[in-house]
Automatic annotation (TrEMBL):
Gene (UniProt): otsB
One Pfam family cited in the UniProt record for this chain: Trehalose_PPase
Function: Removes the phosphate from trehalose 6-phosphate to produce free trehalose.
Protein name, per record: Trehalose 6-phosphate phosphatase
UniProt-recorded Gene Ontology molecular function terms: metal ion binding; trehalose-phosphatase activity
């Protein structure tokens, strides 16, 4: 199988024996959907990821803003490692316990107020995480600016303990101090990732921390829509890598 010449990023890709794949989930492996639960794992994706993991000596991880349990729900045991909640939770290997950074809990009053906001504004959805809270407005775009102002007011009372992250049609309230870059750094310290060049692929602002760390550790960062126009094209690229011989890779 020959190299896909329409993907210039392939030329910067380390060979399979040296690569570690660190992949974002929403907007990267799967298309953005109307709600967090309604994302669809495309036919063939799990098989592609399994083959790629095999090719890279197991060095394949998913690094998501979602809780690890949700990634398990969609991808099962296919990734070797999973980092969730933007790096706050990490499972380094299949079957291992999830390690969590010690961070302050979200004030209960925010959850209560957020639930009231969702009731008052049809289409607004609240996503609760162990160490965070997402105000989704994809179903009520007009409510976006109002929700952003409220989220800013809440975090302003915490003296920097929490911050508001602009996400895709959502405001995510997260504890400061841990990001996807920390997850990349932690995973790259141990087998099967250690000694390889990280290849981080993402689509969102929070992925920039992961990309920065991947580059700092001697790897590369690829971004949708800069390097691939959309998740479907990225999946096709992954499938090409997974199915092809070493000549499918650049470099
Ligand atoms: O780091 P990621 O894996 O990219 O996760 C980021 C957030 O993704 C989810 O929300 C986004 O995707 C939803 C499904 O496509 C979409 O409905 C929503 O509008 C997006 O904001 C997820 O719900 C969050 O928990 C993740 O942090």
């Amino acid at each position: 199988m020959s190299k896909i010449s329409s993907f210039p990023s392939l030329d910067r890709l380390p060979p399979p024996a040296r690569a570690a794949f660190l992949l974002d989930f929403d907007g990267t492996l799967v298309d953005i959907a109307p709600t967090p639960e309604s994302v669809v794992v495309a036919p063939g994706l799990l098989d592609t990821l399994r083959r790629l993991r095999d090719k890279c000596g197991d060095a394949l991880a998913v690094i998501s803003g979602r809780p690890i349990e949700q990634i398990d729900h969609f991808l099962g045991d296919v990734p070797y490692a999973v980092a969730g909640e933007h790096g706050i939770a990490i499972r380094h290997a299949p079957g291992q316990a999830i390690e969590r950074s010690a961070l302050p809990p979200v004030p209960a009053a925010w959850f209560e107020q957020a639930d009231r906001l969702a009731q008052a504004h049809p289409g607004v959805r609240i996503e609760r995480k162990k160490a965070g809270l997402v105000l989704h407005y994809r179903g009520a775009p007009d409510a976006g600016p109002m929700l952003g102002r409220i989220a800013d007011e809440w975090v302003a009372t915490t003296g920097g303990v929490f911050h508001v992250q602009a996400a895709k049609m959502a405001w995510e309230i997260r504890p400061a101090g841990v990001d996807k870059g920390h997850a990349v750094e932690a995973l790259m310290q141990a087998a099967p990732f250690a000694g390889r060049a990280p290849v981080f692929v993402g689509d969102d602002v929070t992925d920039e921390d992961g990309i920065r760390m991947a580059v700092q550790l001697g790897g590369i960062g690829l971004r949708i829509p800069v390097d691939f126009p959309d998740p479907a094209t990225f999946r096709a690229w992954l499938a090409h890598l997974a199915q092809g011989g070493n000549d499918a890779w650049g470099g």
